[in-house]
Amino acid sequence: MTARPDLATSFHRLHHGSELLILANAWDAGSARLIESLGARAIATTSAGLAWALGYADGEALPVPLLVSTVATIARAIRLPLTIDLEAGYSEDPAKVGEIAARAIDAGAIGINIEDGDAPPDSLSAKIAQAKQAGTRTGVDLFVNARTDVYLRDLAPEASRVAETLARAERYRQAGASGIFVPGLTDPAEIRQIATASKLPLNVMARPGLPPASELARLGVRRLSAGSGIAQALWGRAASLAEAFLKEGRSELLSDGAMSYGRINELVAER
Is the pLDDT of residue 64 over 90? Predict the structure, then answer.
C-alpha cells in the first residue's frame, strides 16, 4: 500500500494544535493496533523495539527489506498516521536514504525520524533533503522529524548544548525538516529555551527526570515519545514470567494482568 496524503496532512496538524501529541511507540502490527485501540492519535515505531522483535540488535542491523515489510504490516493493521524510526537512514549516501524513504512511503509511512548521531550536521541535512524529495515525488508531505543527539551523546559542552541544538535545528529546518527531536533533554528551563527559540515543533523522549506531559505542554513541547520504553518494560515483564514458569510451571502466574484471548483476537480482527 502507498501512504495516504491526507494522513500526512493530519499528522502535520497534530504538531501545531493546542494538545501535546503523545506517541506510545509500537514495534509490530499487533502492538500498533493495540495502541490505536487505546485512543492514540498517531502511531510511531521504535527502531529498537522493532529490531528486537525480529531478532536483530538496534543500530541499523535490521535488513532494510525486513524493515519495509514490517512497516507494510503495521500500516495494514491501523487507520492512523504512521511515522517510523529510520535511525540514521540506513546509509551514508543521501541519495540512498531518499530511496529507502520512498520505499517506506510506498509501504504506508507518512513520517520518519532520522538522526545525526556523531555525524556532522551537513550529513543529516543532505539526508533530510533527499527524504523530503522522495515524499514530493510520491505526493506525500513527508513529516521528517530530525533527531539531534547533542544531549543524548554529549556532543557539546553543557554550557553550549542549547545553542548547539538550536543551531542544528535551524540547519535541519532549512534542509526541509518538519520537527526537531532532542532525546536526553529533561531540564525544564532548557526545554523552554529550545521550544521558544526553535522554528520547529519540539519532540522530547520519555526519560527519568522528564517533567509530566502537562508541564511539557506549558513549556512549549509539541510531541512526547515513549521511545523504546514500553518495549523494554514488556521484555522485562516477559523475562520474569517466562523464568518463573520455567522454574515452577504454575499456570496462575500467566493470568495476572493478562488481556483475554478473546479481546486480543477481536482487536486484530476489527481491522
Answer: yes
